[in-house]
Design a protein that fits this description.
With 305 residues, this protein is mostly helical. Helices cover 75% and strands 0% of the residues. It is built from 13 helices and no strands. Helix 1 packs across helix 4 and helix 10 crosses helix 12.
């Protein structure tokens, strides 16, 4: 018995449509998670460079950890009712607010644990209780950042990239590049100025080896790229159309990372954490470690213009 060709084609069309829909769902879910993680980094990275929080987390009792989680859940739940990290926000059922609150806290816990591991504050020599305490306490601002992801740097329609990309002349392209570099420098200073005077950079540098420094560099570049070009924040699609010298996603990310590193080194020198007599390797190590938060600040600065 032969099948009707029309029915056969309709069946193929439905299957293809279903696969495409599933693929779009997964892509949307990944983008939402990336957006939430980026919001967490924007909001929570400064506290990860605070020694006092490491100590408090290390000595926290299980009861205090539970209280911290409960209080975080309540605050994140209230924030999720206003905006959240998904685009668009979808609460079709009442329990979805709870599940997305748990998901936001999960993203915050994973991101904070990852950075603590990257900075060697979590290592095989750290006890399970100490590791849990550090992760729980550091995850509080990360979770808040996840819940505020769209409010921090969502689409506002007022940014200037659309005006800049409509012109093709060299002067406008150079102005676009200069604006991005300036915004990167300002954002890096805003975030790094609170961290550079502290002793945490030297403490972290003493515990980090060369492979971990390379991992910090890769993480800094990846997070910067995700914030500006992947997370779906302000004018992301328009930024991809820029025509300036350093206006392509990869080249812009790399040059802005170098600007963030230079800003980190200058701030460390300004606060006398580095001197001209120090070896260049010390300058490089300290700048790379401070470069993680300054790169994130620089990425936020580019989105703010």
């Amino acid at each position: 018995m032969k099948l009707n060709p029309l029915k056969k084609n309709c069946g193929k069309y439905r299957n293809n449509s279903k696969r495409k829909q599933q693929k779009n769902i997964w892509r949307s879910e990944i983008n939402d998670i990336v957006r939430g993680g980026c919001g967490g980094f924007l909001f929570g990275i400064p506290l990860l460079y605070t020694m006092e929080v490491w100590w408090i987390g290390s000595s926290a009792t299980p009861a205090m950890m539970l209280i911290a989680l409960v209080l975080t859940f309540l605050v994140v739940y209230l924030l999720m009712r206003t905006e959240g990290f998904r685009k668009p926000k979808r609460f079709n059922r009442s329990y979805q607010e709870i599940t997305e609150t748990i998901e936001a806290m999960g993203i915050g816990l994973v991101c904070s644990a990852f950075v603590l591991l990257l900075l060697r504050e979590l290592s095989p020599g750290v006890s399970l209780k100490e590791a849990l305490g550090k992760t729980v306490y550091e995850s509080v601002p990360f979770s808040l950042g996840v819940a505020l992801a769209n409010q921090l740097l969502g689409e506002n329609g007022t940014n200037s990239p659309d005006n800049r990309t409509s012109r093709q002349d060299d002067l406008v392209e150079n102005n676009s590049t200069f604006s991005d570099l300036s915004a990167t420098l300002i954002g890096a200073i805003v975030i790094g100025f609170n961290i550079a005077p502290t002793d945490e950079i030297a403490t972290l540098a003493a515990a980090v080896s060369e492979p971990w420094l390379l991992a910090i560099i890769a993480t800094s570049i990846l997070i910067s790229y995700a914030i500006v070009f992947q997370a779906g924040f302000s004018a992301q699609d328009k930024r991809r159309q820029h025509k300036g010298i350093f206006q392509k996603p990869f080249s812009e990310t790399m040059i802005c990372y170098l600007v963030s590193l230079i800003a980190a080194a200058i701030m460390l020198w300004f606060f006398q954490k580095l001197t001209w007599s120090d070896p260049w390797t010390i300058w490089l190590e300290h700048s790379i470690i401070l470069g993680l938060p300054t790169t994130i600040g620089g990425a936020a600065g580019r989105l703010a213009i």
